[in-house]
Amino acid sequence: MSTTIDRQWTTRLRRRLVEQLPPDKALPDTQPSYVSSWIYVFGVVTLSALVIVILTGFVLAIRGPQWWHQSSIGHYVNSLHLWSVEIFFFAMVIHLWGKFFMAAWRGNRSLTWVTGAVTFATSIATAFTGYVSQTNFDSQWISTQAKDGINATGAGAYFNVLNTGQMLMWHIVLLPVAAVVLTALHVVMVRRKGVVPPFEEVSK
Amino acid sequence: MSRRDFNPDRDVREWTGAQRPYDILKEGVIALLVVALLTAGLALVFGSPDEKQVTIQQWSSADPVDFATTAYSELAGTSGIAGYGAPYNHASDGQFLGVTHLYLAKLVGVHIPIDPAKTFVLRPLATLPDAGTVRFALATWKNASNTERQSWLDEYGKASLSFTHGQLVATPLSLSNPVDVLMASETAMARSGALDSAMVTGGGLYTTDYTNVLLFIADGGWFATLADHQHLLGDQWGMMNETGSYPGQAWLWLYTFWYQIHPFSTSGNADVDAWGIMMLLTAGLILVPYIPGLRSIPRRTKLYRVIWRDHYAGRV
Asked: What ipTM does the predicted assembly reach?
């Protein structure tokens, strides 16, 4: 009986998950004493801004892409969406530079860095598709300007920035899913490996 | 089993020193509340830009001569899109990447085919109901040889265009030239709003694809004049900005930067070169942990001493 249970996919998956990310690492109540700087705040600020971006995006999605042009409440929700995106990128860039100067990839943390950098690139694409889906002068101008760069790479044949429907789908489905999955992976890796220790320096 | 030498830019001895209390949930909740309040405040104070979309109808009313000149260039095959190349047509090889002479767009091919004369002029005009004069002009154009068409276009191109008494006037012009009727009808159709509809709904009632109408508007000079007033042109850091005084896509500054400096600012291959550079830099950013030299920058610059100043001062 116990052998049968041990071999179950579910049992094996659970054991693997607990092994990889035990509860005290997933939800720690202590951290190394060197974690003492404001720079560490920008990771959680980025995550918080992402939550607000997604929630405000949900509200905009409920009423459809034209709502925010026609309603003052919709316009305010759009403003929330815009400013949470600005905060998101501001915090993420500081977080990224902070981690660079900590050489945060040390100690088998390379993939944590890689997922973070790919999330940054994915977020830029997500924001860009939002800008070209606004259905106003900005989206008209940005899309007609951006088409030349994307077309020149050959990608414009399949990723048509002038096709508003296609861009909206990328903005609200494909890219956010990718960004959220990458962010989740990044956070799990951070929790698994912990925060990188400082460089060791030989005392004079 | 061989063991790698310790490399301070790659390896680290895991921390076995002191720990301090850390409430991760409390930190998360406080951060979320602070960011939510900050967002709400910024949205309340600054709002967000929403400059209304422009239409062909507005263009043809605000600058009918620019509109007619653009429509003429589409019919004559001299417009920006007419000579664009892939993904719209085979008119040019497009841009090549750096020193490779690799025409990427041409390699991928034409996937959004656009014949400017048909897409922007002839097909929309054919949708006009009860327009005998237009039908006759369209039939004359269709049945003419390329030489005849070119002579009509040349004659029209030399004429003086004006918009008087609500009509587009080209003088002097022979009565048999159908381009006069086509351009005057295109202008009248645009000013009524029917050209917007015809171009947007070319594929049927439902659509979410505005490729044709946007390409046509962008081929004219009026659209760029509006963008210039909003500081959105390429030499004004272009598309990373947005209308009004908003931060826009500030994170695209490095991409936009390449367009501001020589040789890209004057290069015919600036788009593909800027993309090529950004792809290389992005790959470099992603792969920093694996690139010797680049991954040593943090240790060599010692900026980490600012971040971990409490640790090095022995305060923690």
From this structure: 0.94
